[in-house]
Amino acid sequence: MKTRHPVAAATAAVLLLAGCASGSTAAAPAPTASAGGAGAFPVSFENCDTTVTLDAAPERIVTIKSNTTELLLALGLGERIVGSAFLDGPLPASLADAAADLNVISDFVPGQEAVLALTPDFVYGGWESNFSAEGVGERSALADLGIGSYVSPAACKGDAMPDPLTFDTVFAEIDEAGALFGVPDAAAELVAEQEAELAALTPAAGDTTALWYSSGTDTPYVGAGIGAPQMIMDAAGLTNIFADVHDTWTSAGWESVVEANPSVIVLVDATWNTADSKIANLQANAATAGLDAVLNDRYIVVPFAATEAGIRNVEAAGSIIDQLAALEAE
């Protein structure tokens, strides 16, 4: 059932934007503008099976997760962010100036009291699970308070989940954010930059098999076949050993990893689960210590914040290509 946010009354002059795929096998289409022109309001679109309608651009925004925060900073909207939370790691140097005055209210998902104290008119979350009674509040409850909400479309669940996630979906979110926050020109410029950077990548040649190791010790949590890890590995020219698993991420058995014996291991580096700790685990585990990639230190490291759908995915693919080239040159 779709819930309509009463942030603003709907009118006939609506700008319709497609926020998520309508079915489990479709990528999110690019937004289409009405005759109202760039920056026209009201705007309305479907987002994770929720209808969002706004009469004006939000002015007091709370962002949850790094990908949402980084996108708004890249669009020049830092002054509208009244609070950020649950960041996945340090912001990139390119956004340091824009983030100089960023108000980080929690290292985790903030509670409703902390969020409401900021008197926001909008909450932009990286995950659907951010919007719960234990977190910032259910989306419908926020709407009853006049607070709009939006979830990164890549994180939609059920029929709205991108299957598979593609860069078109990632770029469509940038366009949607541009329309939603009244900065369509900045969004179009950012998309053009990202598309050019993606087109300039030269994926690795040959068949370099890879394990995307996100977390876990006894049971590894790995990149599967339809999410951001697969999208990034495809762009970098790596062959995911778990590409046949129809999921974004998945729990796997070390025996499956040993059987595949990947050429390289992509290590997701997070403050709470570092790349170094993963290497130590691989070396200490009798099952994985004999893997070719472990014996020959064939590791590629990517920061956690660049591994969820967002503006750093193209950069992550480029970094993987460069690190692989350096390994091959040894």
UniProtKB/TrEMBL annotation:
Organism: Cryobacterium adonitolivorans
PANTHER family: IRON(III) DICITRATE-BINDING PROTEIN (PTHR30535:SF7), VITAMIN B12-BINDING PROTEIN (PTHR30535)
Coiled coil (UniProt feature): none
Keyword annotations: Signal
Organism domain of life: Bacteria
Any one Pfam family match given in the protein's UniProt record, by short name: Peripla_BP_2
Family per similarity comment: Belongs to the bacterial solute-binding protein 8 family.
Domain Fe/B12 periplasmic-binding: 60-330
Signal peptide positions on this chain: 1-26
Listed name of the protein: Putative F420-0 ABC transporter substrate-binding protein
The keyword Methyltransferase appears for this protein: no
